[in-house]
Every structure is written in structure tokens, then in C-alpha cells.
Specification:
Helices cover about 55% and strands about 20% of the residues. The protein is of the alpha+beta class and about 325 residues long. It comes from Mucor flavus.
Length: about 325
Amino acid sequence: MNHLFYFYEAILDDEKESVPENQEPFYVQCQWFNETLDLDQETTENLNYCLLTITDLANYWQITITRDMLIEMFPPSNCLIHKFRNKVLRLSLQGSQWIHGHQIQWAIVKKNDDQIEMKLRVHYFDSIYGVAGSVNVDKLPDEKKFELNKSWYKNSAIASRKSNETEEALNIRHKDIQDINQKLQDAFESLKKESIESRLTLFSNFSKVLNTKKERIEELASQVDYLSKRKREDNDEDNDDTRSRKRSSSAQIEGSSPQVVEPIQPSQTTSIKQEISQSQFSLSFQSSHIPKNIVNLSMSDSEEDNDEEEEDEFEVLFNKSKTKKFNF
């Protein structure tokens, strides 16, 4: 099985005394076993995630990080949110120092000559941090120093070679991406140029259509103005004719002389009296000679009585008229 090796530093955190600025840091070697770190997955197997070896160049401490250990020693808290716990622990064990804009750092406290404590700090600001958890690491016997030095050098060489291979592969990939990016930039510039040309052509054609429509609108507007003007002129002519006819008729009326009613002369009164007397006599004579049976053919009894009364009244009036004189 191929293992991954990570090397990083851990600072000294002495709770009793201030740490000198020239204090040498601790060096950590992490041998990762290629297991997926998932503390939320339900399993009964206690997986081994990595082997940590810590040295201050004089002594060595070593510990195997297991699943049960992480669950017990690094519970969810304000410093270690449950949602990001797996990611924070994996990155911190592999030597990462930043996650989501926050600094993570291992600090080592010497508890005694045979044991040290590794604390995982999560920094909120430069000098404000919280402790997400810690593990105690036991010191190795002095007899294993030579073996540990040998494995350290070997693992360093392996990690360096792996790092170089990774860097070379990344450089090749970076060059390929640059070539692809350059091709895309060229294609983009070409498309941009074609787009500008097509837009200019489209605008030119559209301007031609727009100018044609504008000329047609102006032509129709002029025709509308001409027809409106003609209509106003026709209406003015009709009004002039009407006014002229009215003026001529009023002038004729004013020019004609009014009829004068001549007064009746005294000499004419005698003839008028004679005509009235003759008319009364003729009317009375004609009415007296009409047979009554002819008059009463279409009359009812009540109507006959009324007619008889009227006839009697008429005779009385007629008799009076023979003796009465009319004065004019």
C-alpha cells in the first residue's frame, strides 16, 4: 500500500513560561494511510487514519490517530463545528494551516519528560483562538532514534520525489490550461469581431428599413395635411355660399316696398251694407225652402229636436234682421 507523507511544523506552547523567540519548533511527520476520514459514518471498525511522529531533533514522540480517538478527543464545539469537523481534522493532520479564512495550528505542550500534549488551535483573529481538542503523545525509547532517523530521511526523500512529480504534473497541466486558455481567448476575440461586424451589418440594414418607413410616414403625413387643407377650403367655400345667399335674400326683402292697407272710404260703407243685407236675405230664403224630410233622413230624434230649436231661433233672428238696421 502506498502511503502519503506530510511534513510540517508545530509551535511550542508552554502554559507556565513564555516561549523564547529563538525556540526551535517541533517537526511533525504524518504518514497517511489513505483512509477517508468520516466520523459521521456509522461503523464498528476502529480505523487507523495516520501515524504521527514528532521530534525536537533530540527526542521522538509517536502516536497512531484512530477513529475512536478523534471522536472522543475532538467533539463538536464552537471551535469545531460539526458540519466542518471531518474537513478540519483531515486538513490539520495533513499540515494545512488555513481553512475558510481561519488559521489552524498545532501547538505542543511538554507535560513531563516522557509525554507531550498536541493541541489543535482554531484562530478567530491573530491573537484570539480556541482549542478544538488535544491528544497526548508518548515518548519513544532512545534505542529507536537511529531507526526513526533512517525512516525519517527515507520518508522525506519519498515525499520530496512525490512532491516533485506532483509539481511537474501540475506544471504540465498548467501549461496545457494556458494553451487552452490562449485558444479560447483567440476564439473569443474572433467571435467578438464577427459579432461586431454582424451587428454593424444588422444596424445598417435596419437603418435602411427605418429610413424607408420614415419616408413613407412623411409622405402619408403630407397627404393627410393636404386632404385636411382641402376639406377646410371646401367647408369655407360652402360657408361663403351660404352667407352670400342669406345676404342676397335679406337684401331682396329690404328692397321690396311694404303693402299699404288703404282705409275704407265713407262712400264704400253703403255698398258694404247692401251686400251684407242681400247675403242675409239669401241665406234665410234658402233655408226656408229646404224640405224637412230630406234634412231629417240622417238625424236621430235628439238631433231633430236640436235642429228644430235652431231653426226656430234662426227664424226669429231672421225676422228681427228684416226690421233692424245695421250701423257701420
